[in-house]
């Protein structure tokens, strides 16, 4: 009864005590996290014309919001989080939306002018963004109703858009921070290959020793035929001994025959001599 009560109490403690989670831990070992940005209140954002990418305009670093994630470039790397101010996790790729953004957006924001057109942007509160960004994406809100708040806005054609993406991709790849990070990634990829080659060399060394061991194992096999030959010699001598043993046996029948001969002569002496027929009369 006491054991049952103790087991029930232990089970209750296990259920009641929460298990610590790994939230916020950067799984990419060796990659530093970006510095913390302190906000006194939830930030406001603006939408970048021609996209559904939102950006925080009041800080010196780029922090974007796109499809439920906050994105942040730093030292040639990308990080993302569900929060705008914490829990950043390294992202091994360049987000696809980034090449749709005009890299000069800060200057256009400051001048309220988007490529020669008046830009009456709207500052969007954080809560308003969280409640509406899905509907704005699905309804194409900014292009169909607001025209991104740019007067007489004309979106680029698909060909122009692809050309702009290629130009921005080329410009981004040439930045010193991105080059440095790409070089670091190549070095990280080489390390497992170097370790694999070392392991293969270590695995080959026992294989080189195995033929030597096999040769050593074969030497007793070479000695075994010699031992077998030595074992066969007594076997060859055994027939000779058997022959010698058979010779007395062959002599015994001869002796038996000689002993039988006198017994054969005795009947000749035991026969009665016949009387001459004429003398009796």
Main sheet: strand order: 1-2-3-4-5-6
Cα(first) to Cα(last) distance is 143 Å
Q: Rg to the nearest angstrom?
A: 54 Å
Share of helix, binned: 40-55%
Main sheet specs: 6 strands, antiparallel
**Structural class by SSE content:** alpha+beta
Descriptive account of the structure:
The chain is α+β, with helices and mostly antiparallel strands and 281 residues long. The protein has a domain at 27-156. It contains six helices and eight strands. It has helices at 2-16, 105-111, 126-139, 141-146, 158-173, 176-270; strands at residues 46-47, 54-55, 64-66, 69-74, 77-81, 89-91, 113-114, 117-118. A six-stranded antiparallel beta sheet has the order 1-2-3-4-5-6. A hairpin with a 2-residue loop joins strand 7 and strand 8 (117-118). The longest helix has 95 residues, at 176-270. The protein is rod-shaped and about 130 Å long.
Topology:
Elements: H1 2-16, E1 46-47, E2 54-55, E3 64-66, E4 69-74, E5 77-81, E6 89-91, H2 105-111, E7 113-114, E8 117-118, H3 126-139, H4 141-146, H5 158-173, H6 176-270
Antiparallel strand pairs: 1-2, 2-3, 3-4, 4-5, 5-6, 7-8
Overview in brief:
The protein has 281 residues and is an alpha+beta fold.
Short key terms for the protein model shown above:
two-stranded antiparallel ribbon, alpha+beta, 281 residues, 6 helices, six-stranded antiparallel sheet
């Amino acid at each position: 009864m006491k054991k049952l009560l103790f087991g029930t109490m232990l089970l209750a403690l296990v259920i009641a005590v929460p298990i610590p989670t790994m939230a916020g831990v950067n799984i990419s070992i060796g990659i530093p996290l970006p510095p913390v940005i302190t906000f006194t209140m939830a930030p406001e954002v603006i939408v970048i014309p021609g996209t559904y990418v939102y950006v925080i305009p009041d800080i010196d670093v780029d922090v974007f919001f796109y499809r439920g994630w906050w994105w942040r470039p730093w030292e040639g790397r990308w990080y993302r989080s569900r929060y705008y101010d914490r829990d950043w996790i390294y992202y091994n790729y360049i987000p696809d939306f980034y090449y749709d953004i005009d890299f000069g957006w800060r200057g256009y924001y400051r001048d309220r002018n988007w490529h020669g057109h008046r830009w009456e942007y709207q500052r969007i509160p954080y809560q308003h963004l969280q409640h509406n960004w899905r509907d704005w994406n699905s309804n194409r809100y900014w292009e169909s109703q607001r025209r991104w708040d740019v007067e007489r806005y004309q979106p680029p054609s698909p060909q122009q858009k692809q050309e702009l993406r290629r130009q921005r991709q080329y410009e981004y790849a040439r930045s010193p921070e991105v080059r440095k990070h790409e070089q670091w990634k190549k070095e990280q990829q080489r390390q497992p290959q170097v370790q694999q080659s070392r392991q293969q060399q270590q695995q080959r060394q026992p294989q080189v020793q195995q033929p030597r061991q096999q040769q050593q194992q074969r030497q007793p096999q070479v000695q075994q035929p010699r031992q077998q030959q030595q074992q066969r010699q007594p076997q060859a001598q055994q027939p000779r001994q058997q022959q010698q043993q058979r010779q007395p046996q062959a002599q015994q029948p001869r002796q038996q025959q000689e002993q039988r001969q006198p017994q054969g002569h005795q009947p000749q002496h035991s026969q009665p001599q016949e009387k001459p027929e004429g003398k009796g009369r």
